[in-house]
Each structure stands twice: as C-alpha cells, then as structure tokens.
C-alpha cells in the first residue's frame, strides 16, 4: 500500500516512533525503514528495541533506538536532547506508545491509579514529546505529528473510561494547537484506530474471536497519514459512532449500553477461554473494530 509514494515522501526523513518495540510501532518501523526513512525508535526495553533494529539492519534499513520511560518527563527531555544532538532534527513524530485498561466503573472505584497511569503515558508523555520537538519544527517550518488515538474517543466505549479519557485529552490538545502551528507548516493528524491485534489486547481472551486489524494494516493507516497529512483518519464505524453521538446521542448511548450488558467485566473476560456466544458475535459483527 502506497509503496512508491511512501518512499518518495519519507526517504531520508527522521521519524520518531514511540512504542517501537512491538505491535503497531514495530510494524510501522519496518514499513517506514523499508521505504527509506531513518526510524528513531523509543520504548522502555532496550533489548526489544535492539531486536527490531537488527531486523531493520538485516534489510539495510536505518534505525536508531533509545530506551526511555515515557511517564518520566525528565527522561523525555534528556532523550529528545540526545536525539536532536545526534540527528539534528525530527521530521515526523508518531505518538504510538500507550497503555489500555479495560475496566467498568464498578471495578474502578478503588483504582484511581488506573486513571493516573493512562494519563501519564497516553497524554502527558505524548504532550511532553510534542513540547520538546515543537521548537525545532517551528524553526524549520516543517513537521508532522501523528497521534495514534482510538475509535473509543468517537464511540464512547464502555469499560474504557480511563483509556479513552487519556486519548481524548490528547485529541483535544492536538486540535487546539493545530491552528496555532498550521502557518508554520507543522501538521497534526489523529488516527482513531479500531481494535488492533497487538499484545496490548492479549489479556482479554474474547478478543481472539473478534474482528481486528493486523499491526500491518494499522501501519498502513500511519502511511496514509504521512502521505496525505489529513486532520484525522477513522474507520466507517468510527464515523458512524461519532455522527450518532452528535445527532442522536440517546441512540448511541442505547447501543453502547447494550454492548456493555452483553460482554463480561475485566476479571471474567480475562479468564474466559470459550468462544463468544451468538449474541456477542452478532454485536461484534454489527460494530466491527470497536473494543467491548
């Protein structure tokens, strides 16, 4: 997908990908490196980053790796300073690293830390990276920030209040600053990802039987964002969910409430090994790509 155009757009560009050691970030790294980009991968585990780097080097791609805890603002400052010193500038930032938590409010009453830790990485970590890289982008009058958001921001998915709130915060931040930096030719894009089959969703066994994108399909959406520089990218289901909430919010609420009642809470879903029942399967097919 977009191979020739992608190569033309990203060749010799410095592209940061957070969460580059697995899942969407890893697949995106391979795709962009194969297209001629210099991928700069950030994650906590240096061992995993080096494994990805070795695979990229094996096909003569270019990758640099940096271990960084994206919940530590001082570590982010230090890492970005090092990247800019070693590579002069960053053309594109892909804010992909994140944490997802699936818990109903009833299971979250004594787990305020769930909300804190999702905000720490999904919002504050991403914002800190933007703040550190923005001066260089504005000075060069060139830059693109791509945020990997979630269909849940559009659909208001039950059981994901901690995760969706953190992604929605980043979404609002990006929408506000987009107008401020547009005149300096810095673009912002939000990708409202549907369910993607990555290690992040592995604890919920029921997801094994539900429609989901592959990491490569998710990476293709990042390629589309890089090439076209749209304000946002979403699936048909995401657009439908957003429209129904804007126009007929009670209908949207009713659908989500039905889904909430059909699917089990975190503890049950985590240990459940049997296939979804016929009603659950039907609901998942009606609303493909939306986590439940």
Outline the structure in words.
This protein is α/β, with parallel strands linked by helices and 292 residues long. The chain has one domain (3-286): NAD(P)-binding Rossmann-like Domain (Rossmann fold). It contains 12 helices and 7 strands. It has helices at residues 3-10, 23-34, 46-58, 73-87, 112-140, 151-155, 161-181, 215-228, 236-247, 249-262, 266-271, 278-286, and strands at residues 14-18, 38-43, 62-67, 92-95, 143-150, 186-193, 232-234. The chain has a 7-stranded parallel beta sheet with strand order 3-2-1-4-5-6-7, sandwiched between helices. Helix 8 (215-228) links the parallel strand 6 (186-193) and strand 7 (232-234). The radius of gyration is 19 Å and the shape is globular. The protein starts with a helix and ends in a 6-residue tail after the last helix. The mean pLDDT is 89.
Short précis:
This protein has twelve helices and seven strands. The chain is of the alpha/beta class and 292 residues long. Helix 9 packs across helix 10.
> Can you identify the CATH class?
Alpha Beta
First and last CA, distance? 29 Å
Indicate the structural class: alpha/beta
Major sheet characteristics = 7 strands, parallel
Instruction: Just name the CATH architecture.
Output: 3-Layer(aba) Sandwich
Shape descriptor: globular
Strand order of the largest sheet: 3-2-1-4-5-6-7
Task: From the alpha carbons, calculate the radius of gyration and give it in angstroms.
Answer: 19 Å
Search tags:
about 290 residues, Rossmann fold, 7-stranded parallel sheet
């Amino acid at each position: 997908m977009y191979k020739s155009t992608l190569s033309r757009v990203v060749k010799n560009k410095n592209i940061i990908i957070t969460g580059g050691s697995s899942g969407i970030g890893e697949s995106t790294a391979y795709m962009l490196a194969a297209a001629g980009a210099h991928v700069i991968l950030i994650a906590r585990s240096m061992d995993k980053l080096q494994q990805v780097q070795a695979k990229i080097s094996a096909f003569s791609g270019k990758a640099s790796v940096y271990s960084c805890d994206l919940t530590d603002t001082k570590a982010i400052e230090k890492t970005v300073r090092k990247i800019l010193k070693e590579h002069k500038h960053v053309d594109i930032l892909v804010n992909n690293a994140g944490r997802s938590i699936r818990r109903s409010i009833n299971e979250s009453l004594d787990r305020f830390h769930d909300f804190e830790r999702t905000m720490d990485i999904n919002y504050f970590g991403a914002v800190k990276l933007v703040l550190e890289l923005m001066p260089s982008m504005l000075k060069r009058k060139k830059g693109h920030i791509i945020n990997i958001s979630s269909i849940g921001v559009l659909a208001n998915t039950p059981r994901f209040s901690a995760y969706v709130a953190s992604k929605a915060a980043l979404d609002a931040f990006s929408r506000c600053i987009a107008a401020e930096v547009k005149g300096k030719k810095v673009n912002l894009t939000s990708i409202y990802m549907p369910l993607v089959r990555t290690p992040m969703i592995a604890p919920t066994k029921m997801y094994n039987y539900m429609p989901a994108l592959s990491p490569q399909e998710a990476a293709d959406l990042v390629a589309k964002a890089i090439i076209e520089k749209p304000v946002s990218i979403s699936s048909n289901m995401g657009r439908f969910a957003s429209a129904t909430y804007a126009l007929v919010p009670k209908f949207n609420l009713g659908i989500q409430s039905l889904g909430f009642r059909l699917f089990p809470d975190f503890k049950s879903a985590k240990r459940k090994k049997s296939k979804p029942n016929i009603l659950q399967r039907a609901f998942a097919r009606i609303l493909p790509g939306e986590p439940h």
